[in-house]
Design goal:
The protein contains 6 helices and 9 strands, in the order ααββββαββαααβββ.
């Protein structure tokens, strides 16, 4: 197995990222790459991103979440406010996000401060979720130890009976917004001479720079 892993190779030759392609605002480039991923027939979950947080003990943790909005204010996802990620963000309200569109040989990394979105935004998004997902938000005590899967099923049945077709948003469920101060765009290239363009925020302005791979 070790020999097999050590000899795995792939040549990245699908695209390039030149300075001419780097827009003045990183959000514009991100939205263009996200649209490319959404249009690709090979990318199955273009909206999936890895979220990295740090606990009070300095221990990092990651998980995959789904982006639900992106504009000049930042990038938004939704979760249970009692979850591990929420507890860690309460202590260290900074995080990192990463999109890896393997099929396009592209990676985007984003870092910044994190804040909760407004209750109105959380209400609006919760209202358009599928009914099963809204019930699931009530049924799952996220990140807590449970005896077995039957606990979740029993909770789901109980809340479905209680709320019917109109479950309200749980008060411990809602959105977070990461406000970027750092972006990095990576495009795989041949011979491991990949393209890396970094944007960093300085005095309210974005500065773009090429990094060695």
């Amino acid at each position: 197995m070790q020999r097999h892993l050590a000899h795995q190779r792939k040549s990245y030759e699908q695209g390039q990222l030149d300075e001419a392609d780097a827009t003045a605002q990183p959000l514009a480039l991100f939205l263009r790459w996200l649209a490319d991923a959404e249009k690709s027939k090979n990318v199955t979950e273009s909206n999936a991103m890895t979220l990295a947080t740090v606990g009070s003990d300095g221990r990092p943790s990651t998980r995959v979440v789904l982006i639900k909005d992106a504009d000049e204010r930042g990038l938004v996802w939704y979760t249970n406010y009692d979850s591990r990620k929420a507890q860690e963000l309460a202590v260290h309200p900074q995080a990192a996000l990463q999109f890896h569109w393997v099929e396009l040989e592209r990676v985007v990394r984003i870092e910044g401060l994190v804040e909760k979105v407004s209750a109105e935004e959380s209400d609006a998004y919760f209202a358009v979720r599928p009914l099963d997902s809204r019930i699931g938000a009530w049924a799952s005590p996220q990140s807590q130890v449970i005896a077995n899967r039957g606990v979740l099923l029993a909770n789901a049945a109980r809340y479905a009976s209680r709320f019917g077709l109109n479950p309200p948003r749980p008060q411990n469920w809602g959105g977070y917004r990461l406000i970027p101060d750092y972006w990095e765009f990576w495009q795989g290239r041949k011979s491991r001479l990949h393209d890396r363009i970094r944007y960093r925020l300085s005095d309210g302005h974005w500065i773009s720079e090429r990094l060695a791979p």
